[in-house]
Amino acid sequence: MASNKIVPSCYVYFFLLNLYYQIKQKKVHQLEFVQISRHIYKLTYKTVVGIPVKINTWYVLDGESVHIIDTGMKDYAHTQLNIAKSLGIPKSILLTHGHLDHINGAKYLRDNLNIPIYAHEVEAPFINGEKPYPNKAEKETTGVEHQVESLSNNIIKKLPVDVYLTPGHTPGHVIYHHKDDNVLLTGDLFFSNAESLHPPIRKFTVDMGENINSGRIIDKIKPSIISSSHGEDVKYNCDLYPIYKFIYE
After folding, report:
1. 190: closest CA among 231, 134, 161?
2. Is residue 237 domain-resident?
């Protein structure tokens, strides 16, 4: 039986080879780049954002087009740029929300790729510096103030992923579902390990109760894989959310 898995281009091969030698020479630390489904690649690295944390960002292929989902920290933006260009033609940056560890590389990528940045219309004002998050006194400094566009219905129709509003961690937090691959990219809706789901850090979450309720969306979508911004990918099963809700609600 023929495999549906896309074979990476020679550009991806040489990028990975170069990355391997950089890691061996200790120029890049604790960085991993993997293909998690036919159309989706994931970059993972460990850094410190107040606390030590693992950050995942994604690349969604749509023919020759590449959509970057979350940008992580600016220290890794050049690596992200090279990955995106090695996979195809970068078309957009899609944000799950506007926290630093998801948007810090957006300015570099936008300036060098000349592509639009999108977020949910509820989230865009916080990213654009129009108002602070409800749990913060000061507005965000994102570097892309007044450069983030709302995910209108016309934009969403052209994307290879469906967009779902999942408020709680932030008012306009969204997740992205790739129907063909049945992979759900959940941002900070959850933290995860290989077998279970956990809530995001309370200190950075606007409304934890609302966030936990938003998590029920996984039982509607029933994805094969749940990939969060912080942690390991999880295979969906019908017990995941009930256990999560029972423990943390």
Report:
1. 231
2. yes
Encoding tokens for residue 95?
């944000």
Find, among 123, 91, 116, the residue nearest to 187 by Cα.
123
Residue 52 lies in a domain: yes
Identify any residues that bridge with 94 across adjacent strands, giving them in sequence order.
69, 118
Domain that holds residue 43: 10-15+28-248
Residue 184's φ and ψ, nearest 5 degrees, are: -110, 120
- The single-letter DSSP state of residue 203 is G
Angle between helical axes of 77-87 and 106-113 (0-180°, round to 10): 40
Q: What is the pLDDT of residues 160-202, one digit of tens each?
A: 999 999 999 999 999 999 999 999 999 999 999 999 999 999 9
Asked, for residue 20, whether it belongs to a domain, the answer is no
CA distances from 68 to 77, 129, 225 (A): 11, 22, 18
Number of domains in the chain: 1
Residue 27 amino acid letter: K
- Asked if residue 181 is part of any domain, the answer here is yes
State whether residue 241 is helix, strand or coil. helix
Count the alpha carbons within 13 Å of 77 in the hemisphere toward its beta carbon.
18
Q: What is the pTM of this model?
A: 0.89
Short-list 180, 187, 224, 231, CA closest to 205: 187
Instruction: Provide the CATH number for the domain around residue 46.
Output: 3.60.15.10
Residue 221, exposed/middle/buried by CB under 10 A (0-12, 13-18, 19+)?
middle
User: Would you say 67 and 94 are in contact if contact means Cβ atoms under 8 Å apart?
Assistant: yes
